[in-house]
Amino acid sequence: AIVRKGALGSMYTVGKGIAPESDAGVFSLLGYDPLQIHISRGLVESIGAGVDFHDGDLALRAGFATVDGDKLVDRRAGRNLSTEEARQLAGAVNGEVRLKNGTRFQFQATVGHRAVVVFRANSHKFSSEISNFDPAYVRTGKISIAQPGAKEYDIPKCDPMDDSPEAVKSAALVNEFGFKIRQVLDPHPVNQQRRKQGKKPANFVLMRDAGTTRPDVQGFHEKWGMKAVMIADLPAELGIGRLLGMNVREIPPGTSLEDYRKRAELVLRLAGEYDFVYVHLKGPDEPGHDGLYDLKKQRTEEIDSG
Fold first, then answer.
1. What is the pTM of this model?
2. % of the chain residues with pLDDT over 90
């Protein structure tokens, strides 16, 4: 249906040979150059998740993962962690993890294995010039680039990317948090139950794409002269819409034909009110991350047939 009435082509969202993260890709689709502005995925998702952020705080995208001994064996804890399980684990983290120097933080589960963490500045000075605490994405300039997948990785370590005291302190804080969070998560009842069910425990947290200040970015209406709305279900896209001053319509996550139908109906309803409608369809993305070509093809066909 879409193919018959549309136009097809290919494009490099950020640049040839670059496998971008969602935030850089979406900013590029909306007409912004992610290579010229520093976009922190951590900051974007914190805003999308409704977590309070003030310039000077240190925000990172986080995700529950599985470690076994000294190896990271699954970056998404089997990709079957429910949002309710994640919220219970997050509650334990916020209630039990204590950091040196009394650094305060807010760790918030969002959807499935996804989460965000914001370390509060107060009297501390942080820097976003730190490496990712996630081996699958490497900081390169202003963005992170996805790396080829692996069956397992060494336990990650966060390093300062310059010699400033703020970067050294921020990297040490991320490493401390990663170590202490494992001590809380590993014996948690949620993970004990997951092991009994033959599932991988969500006993570790990866973190990446640090940010300490909101990006100085021109609003979508100011830049393009169009009244715009963002329809999305995940924190990255929701945060981008809010940063750019778009009207944001948050909908429950879903990849079924019924979910696609609801999104299509919302697009049709809003098309008469807005000059520009962006709708995010997550369905084909997860199989792409997991290397499941046939399932990605199937979900793309489902969107078109709906």
1. 0.89
2. 71
